[in-house]
């Protein structure tokens, strides 16, 4: 859908150079001399790279409509990650690197949200927190518990995470998927 560049807002997904980009920052600038323009920071949906662009306020940009669908992760193979839509049971594949550092937290059968543009899957949103088991960590040393010190641990998915001293090997913990950080001990 064509929109005037002067109306660009943060969060829009626009087509730029033939690819979808998310608007991260948008600022309307009216210099003392010359015409007004929009200074926009864009993040590539496909590659994750960022760029800064200027659009004249009277330019047209193509705003893309994003549709969020509930899906289930099925498996990973040589072709990528395979998902199934919860409503239609249609299956589709996405590249494995689409999740970046969050990939190890996705397990078979996990419910996720997938964003689609014009029927094409572009991004995956994992749950904010997942439960993992600690497979390796150092034993607690007396006197360390007085300060808020953390110790390294390796989780069942291979991710390294800093945990409080009272966490032991075999404990289940809740981990934030965005930053791979300890949240709490699992109940």
Description:
This protein is mainly β and 187 residues long. The protein contains no helices and 16 strands. Helix content is 0%, strand content 54%. Strands 1-6-2-3-4-5 form a six-stranded antiparallel β-sheet, with no helix packed on it. A five-stranded antiparallel β-sheet has the order 9-8-7-10-11, with no helix packed on it. A five-stranded antiparallel β-sheet has the order 14-13-12-15-16, with no helix packed on it. The model has no long low-confidence stretch (mean pLDDT 88).
Question: What is the gyration radius calculated from CA atoms?
Answer: 22 Å
Can you summarize the main beta sheet? 6 strands, antiparallel
Distance between the termini: 48 Å
**Widest beta sheet: strand line-up:** 1-6-2-3-4-5
Which word captures the global form? flat
The chain-level mean pLDDT equals 88
Strand content: over 45%
Keywords:
single chain; 187 residues; mainly beta; six-stranded antiparallel sheet; five-stranded antiparallel sheet; 16 strands; 0% helix
Give me a quick take on this structure.
This protein has 187 residues and is an all-beta fold.
Strand-helix topology:
Blueprint: E1 2-4, E2 13-16, E3 19-29, E4 37-44, E5 50-56, E6 60-64, E7 66-77, E8 80-85, E9 91-94, E10 111-117, E11 120-125, E12 129-137, E13 151-155, E14 160-163, E15 172-176, E16 181-185
Antiparallel strand pairs: 1-6, 2-3, 2-6, 3-4, 4-5, 7-8, 7-10, 8-9, 10-11, 12-13, 12-15, 13-14, 15-16
């Amino acid at each position: 859908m064509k929109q005037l560049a002067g109306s660009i807002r943060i969060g829009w997904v626009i087509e730029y150079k033939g690819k979808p980009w998310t608007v991260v920052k948008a600022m309307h600038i009216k210099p003392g001399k010359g015409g007004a323009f929009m200074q926009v920071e864009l993040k590539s949906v496909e590659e994750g790279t960022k760029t800064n662009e200027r659009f004249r306020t009277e330019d047209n940009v193509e705003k893309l409509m994003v549709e969020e669908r509930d899906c289930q992760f099925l498996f990973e193979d040589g072709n990528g990650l395979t998902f199934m839509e919860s409503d239609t049971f249609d299956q589709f594949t996405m590249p494995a690197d689409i999740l970046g550092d969050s990939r190890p937290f996705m397990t078979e059968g996990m419910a996720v949200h997938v964003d689609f543009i014009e029927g094409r899957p572009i991004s995956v949103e994992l749950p904010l927190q997942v439960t993992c088991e600690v497979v390796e960590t150092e034993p607690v040393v007396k006197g360390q518990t007085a300060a808020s010190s953390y110790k390294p641990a390796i989780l069942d998915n291979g991710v390294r995470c800093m945990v409080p001293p009272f966490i032991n090997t075999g404990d289940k913990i809740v981990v934030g998927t965005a930053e791979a950080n300890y949240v709490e001990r699992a109940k």
